[in-house]
Amino acid sequence: MPRQARVIVPGFPHHIVQRGHNRQPVFVERRDYVYYLGNLREWKQVYELEVFSYCLMTNHVHLVVQANDNVTAIPQLMKRLAGRQTRFVNALEKRSGSLWEGRYKISPIDTDAYLLACCRYVELNPVKAGMVEKAKAYEWSSYSARVGLLASDWLDESDSFRALAVDQQARIEAYRQFVEQHNGSPADVMIQEAINSNKLTGGQKFVDDIETRIGIRVEARKPGRPTTQK
User: Fold this and answer.
1) Domain CATH code at residue 69
2) Number of structural domains found in the chain
3) In this structure, is the dihedral angle defined by the CA atoms of residues 128, 130, 134 and 139, taken in order, positive or negative?
4) 5 in any annotated domain
């Protein structure tokens, strides 16, 4: 079966996953996580990208990044992040070779229907993996910054998040409930299938609209039904 081509759609958020080579650990020491996030902060500003969500697991990374009009910006971001982390770890461990799988996976997201669900999916990874009981207990995701438990001057807010309520505290509470009341969602199935195959995270109308917009046929899937985002 041919490998599904990666698609980047200007103006839409994208779910990105990059795994360690042979699924080996990428982050071992605290310094590894800190270094990656420092580079994410630096290079997302260089390429004028917005980061809505992230989670650094031991052997892979989840990012939700808004694409701009420069379709090379996200690939360049991922190249910089992977290259710097590889050189950093190799120098410390006196080793050589690849730290990452050759290709990251990416899925454009239907903003209105699935963006918040995708951010929740990303931030609940450590909970689903049994590493922590609550998302707020995991230090290396965007959740604590999103709900105001940790200061961040570079994590961006999406229009979908701002639409949750009229003021910031109410938005935070709405999002906190949205994440904490999660007990399995049909949206998660679509999100996982989409990112695993570089497909679009959205229903059939979204697929049709994007195909028309970019002039590339994307294999059709059955439309999903997202959970309420409020």
Assistant:
1) 3.30.70.1290
2) 1
3) negative
4) no
